[in-house]
């Protein structure tokens, strides 16, 4: 009988080896080569069902639509899984709209979000029958033009900028302490309130455009729940202003954006300010309770009838994060005794492929996949192969490792592939999907030829004098 320790519903350690579902991680690394991203189909499905369940149970006033944020992972196979689970999506730009449509999302469950949408994108969204979440007053004219040209009705929502100045607690976004209010003030998304009032008046005179809802997204600022009642109060206070200005208009769709943490929550723990923060975020049920009860109370306080309002949420990291791990191989170990002792475990991957080390100051959880229950007694930087410092996990506590060992970085299913770059002309890793004992490519790894595929060298430059 194998000795088994469960890390969560998807990851386990069996006889000292890390498993993702029923697949041994080190064996995946050897079979598919490293570096690779690995996604668990079962975990994605579980996350999708959990988000639906936790919010549907609590928001009984109307329907709930979970719009998984496709920017977090636009591998088409992962999107098909979520489409099968009844999730819609938030998309940004022409590429993500393409991914949504090719990934089986019913068009009326797509929210085309994002700043500076151009004519082509708006026309494609209207043609497809997707919802357009306006980010500026100027976009409304493009919507009307497209709707007229295509002879179709268009459905728009307004992304608003509530007054978040009550959010005085610090955000996790920056190394230096900054309030959430200040971070929100600098964040460009959404239509300034004076303009949004005007948009509402104009849209009501456009027979080919329906104003179906409102949207706000402030993002993941902390892993507690304290931000939510304040966010919702500010949002609903603005909705009341819009209602009063627009002759009693009420939103049919009320979108609260994303920002729910990954359960192990690697966010920000690479910063000295947050490095000792207790690992892990509250259970999703706690967020769902705070969000739905705060919303219900705020709507009531402002005299709205919540019945029939569709609550929309847009989790990105919360849906994909813990469904993915990243696998690398140890290539070399370097240790320096003087002038200061230091040890580096050199791998075949890079923080260029796990860029939230830099963007979000993440601290990934590393595990030596083939020695997963050996206690760590050596401190070393796990580093990547680029010419940058490339400290993927600084000062990791590891067991003795040798070249050929596999290192797994947990919770890398959201954003890492989409943010990766080709620095040092490195081909980006592919993605393998596991399902029980099955494992298959869903995104092939890049080759060096792919990296140079866009290059054009004029003939006159191809000779040396
Ligand atoms: C509009 C919008 N919705 C949802 C998300 C997803 O956020 P998260 O991954 O924090 O849930 C984002 C991410 O930036 C976003 O911009």
What features would you describe in this structure?
The protein has helices spanning 25-32, 41-58, 76-84, 93-102, 119-128, 137-150, 180-186, 193-203, 227-245, 284-301, 317-320, 356-359, 416-419, 448-451; strands at residues 4-6, 11-14, 17-20, 23-24, 36-40, 64-69, 88-92, 110-113, 131-134, 154-159, 209-215, 253-255, 310-313, 324-336, 342-347, 366-368, 378-383, 391-398, 406-410, 430-435, 438-443. The chain starts with a strand and ends in a 14-residue tail after the last helix. The radius of gyration is 24 Å and the shape is globular. The longest helix has 19 residues, at 227-245. Helix content is 30%, strand content 24%. The chain folds into two domains: 4-40 and 324-451, Lyase, Ornithine Decarboxylase, Chain A, domain 1; 114-315, Alanine racemase (TIM Barrel), CATH 3.20.20. The protein has 465 residues and is an alpha/beta fold. The structure holds pyridoxal-5'-phosphate. Pyridoxal-5'-phosphate binds at residues 69, 72, 90, 113, 217, 219-220, 257-260, 314-318.
Descriptive labels:
TIM Barrel; binds pyridoxal-5'-phosphate; 24% strand; 465 residues; Lyase, Ornithine Decarboxylase, Chain A, domain 1; alpha/beta; 2 domains; 21 strands
Q: What is the total number of structural domains?
A: 2
Total beta strands: 21
Helix content: 25-40%
What about the largest sheet? 9 strands, mixed
Q: What is the CA–CA distance across the termini?
A: 71 Å
Average of per-residue pLDDT values: 96
Bound molecules: pyridoxal-5'-phosphate
Number of helices: 14
In CATH, the topology of the largest domain is named: TIM Barrel
From the spread of the alpha carbons, the general shape counts as globular
The CATH superfamily title of the largest domain: Alanine racemase
Unreliable spans are: none
């Amino acid at each position: 009988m194998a000795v088994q320790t469960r890390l969560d519903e998807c990851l386990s350690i069996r006889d000292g080896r890390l498993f993702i579902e029923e697949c041994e991680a080190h064996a995946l690394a050897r079979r598919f080569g490293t570096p690779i991203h690995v996604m668990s189909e079962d975990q994605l499905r579980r996350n999708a069902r959990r988000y639906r369940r936790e919010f549907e149970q609590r928001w009984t006033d109307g329907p709930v639509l979970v719009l998984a944020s496709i920017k977090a992972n636009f591998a088409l196979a992962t999107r098909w899984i979520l489409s099968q689970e009844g999730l819609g999506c938030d998309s940004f730009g022409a590429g993500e709209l393409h991914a949504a449509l090719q990934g089986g999302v019913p068009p009326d469950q797509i929210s085309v979000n994002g700043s500076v949408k151009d004519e082509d994108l708006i026309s494609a969204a209207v043609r497809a029958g997707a919802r357009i979440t306006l980010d500026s007053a100027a976009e409304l004219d493009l919507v009307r033009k497209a709707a007229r040209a295509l002879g179709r009705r268009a459905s728009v929502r307004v992304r608003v900028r509530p007054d978040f100045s009550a959010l005085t607690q610090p955000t996790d976004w920056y190394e230096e302490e900054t309030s959430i209010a200040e971070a929100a003030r600098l964040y460009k998304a959404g239509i300034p309130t004076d303009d949004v009032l005007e948009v509402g008046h104009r849209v009501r005179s456009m027979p080919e455009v329906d104003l179906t809802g409102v949207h706000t997204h402030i993002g993941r600022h902390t892993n507690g729940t304290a931000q939510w009642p304040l966010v919702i109060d500010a949002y609903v206070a603005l909705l009341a202003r819009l209602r009063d200005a627009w002759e009693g208009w009420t939103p049919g769709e009320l979108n609260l954006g994303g920002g729910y943490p990954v359960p192990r929550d690697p966010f920000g723990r690479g910063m000295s300010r947050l490095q000792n923060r207790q690992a892990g975020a509250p259970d999703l049920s706690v967020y769902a309770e705070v969000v739905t009860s705060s919303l219900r109370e705020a709507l009531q306080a402002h005299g709205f009838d919540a019945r029939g309002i569709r609550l929309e949420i847009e989790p990105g990291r919360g849906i994909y994060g813990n469904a993915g791990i990243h696998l690398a191989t140890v290539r070399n170990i370097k240790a320096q005794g003087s002038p200061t002792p230091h040890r580096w475990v050199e791998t075949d991957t890079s923080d260029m492929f796990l860029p939230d080390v830099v963007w979000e100051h993440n601290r990934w959880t590393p595990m030596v996949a083939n020695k997963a229950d050996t206690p760590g007694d050596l401190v070393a930087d796990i580093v990547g192969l680029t010419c940058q410092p490339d400290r993927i996990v600084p000062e990791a506590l590891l067991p003795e490792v040798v070249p050929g060992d596999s290192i797994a970085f947990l919770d890398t299913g959201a954003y890492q592939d989409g943010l990766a770059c080709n620095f040092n002309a490195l081909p980006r890793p592919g993605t393998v999907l596991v399902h029980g004992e099955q494992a298959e490519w869903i995104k092939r790894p890049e080759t060096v030829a792919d990296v140079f595929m866009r290059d054009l060298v004029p003939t006159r430059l191809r000779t040396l004098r």
